[in-house]
Amino acid sequence: MSGRDSGARSHGRGGIRGFVKDNGLGLFFTLGFLLTLVGQAFAGQADFNDQLAADQLQTVGFLTYVTSSDFAVDVAENWQSEYLQFFLYIGATIWLLQRGSPESKEPGKSGTESDDDQMVGEHAVATSPKWAAASGWRRTLYSHSLLLVMGTIFVLCWLVQSITGVAAYNEQRLRQLQAPLSWSQYLGAADFWNRTLQNWQSELLAVASMAVLSIYLRQRGSPESKPVGAAHDATGVEG
Predict the structure, then answer these.
(1) What's the first-to-final CA gap in the chain, in angstroms?
(2) CA distances from residue 102 to 112, 192, 224 in whole angstroms, order as listed
(3) Range of the domain at 37
(4) Of the ranges 6-20, 66-80, 133-147, which one carries the lowest mean pLDDT score?
(5) Cβ 68 vs Cβ 169: under 8 Å
(6) Confidence of residue 239 (pLDDT cuts 50, 70, 90)
(7) Neighbour tally for 98: CB within 10 Å
(8) Last residue of some domain: 60, 85, 102?
(9) What is the pTM of this model?
(10) Is 166 exposed, middle or buried (0-12, 13-18, 19+ CB in 10 A)?
(11) I need a labelling partner for 70 at 20 to 30 A (CA). Which of 3, 63, 143, 204 fits?
(12) Backbone CA torsion sign across 101, 102, 108, 113
C-alpha cells in the first residue's frame, strides 16, 4: 500500500514538473506580472500618501488605495499601451516587411497569404482548430481573432484609463479648489494625453528597436533571434 502511495505521489510531482516545464514562459511572465503589480501597489500607496501629506490631508490605507481611481488609472494606462503595441505589431506585420529581421515575414510574402499557406478550409489538417476548417463567418472570425482580441482589450483598457483618469484628476483639482472636468473635457486635457503618449512612444520605440537590432545582433537559442551564423539580410528566420 505504501509503495503504491509513494508511486502515485511521485507521478503527481512529475506531472506538475512537466506542466511547469511545458508552460514555463507563460508562468514566468505571469508570476513577474503579479509580483510587479503588488510592488506597484505598495510603491504607489507610499507616493500617494506623500502627496496627501504635502497637502496636509489624511493619508489612506493600502486597501483604500488599491480600490481608488489613482491606482486604477496607473494600471490601466500601462495595460492599454502594451496591448496597443501588440495590436499594431500584429496588424503591421501582415503587410509591412523589414528585410533582415526575424520579426518580419520574408520579402514577397506580405498580405494575408493563401488558404494553402494558412491551412484553412479544404487545406486544414487533422490537428487544425475546428473553426479553421469551417466556412463562412466562423473561419473569417477565427482568422482575425488574435488581432480582434488584442484590439478589444486595448480599447477597454483605454476606456478604463479615461474614466478612472478623470476621477483621479478631478480629485486633485478639488484639493486645489478648482472646478472638476467632465469626461469629454478630460479627453482633451493635457493630463490625459501626457499619460497616454508617454506610454505609446515607449512601446513604439521598443518594437522598432527589436525589429531593427535583431537584423544585426543575435541571441543564441532564442526564437526572437536569427541563428548566430545567419546572414544580416536573412529575413523571417528564427533561431
Answers:
(1) 49
(2) 18, 35, 7
(3) 1-60
(4) 6-20
(5) no
(6) low
(7) 19
(8) 60
(9) 0.84
(10) buried
(11) 204
(12) negative
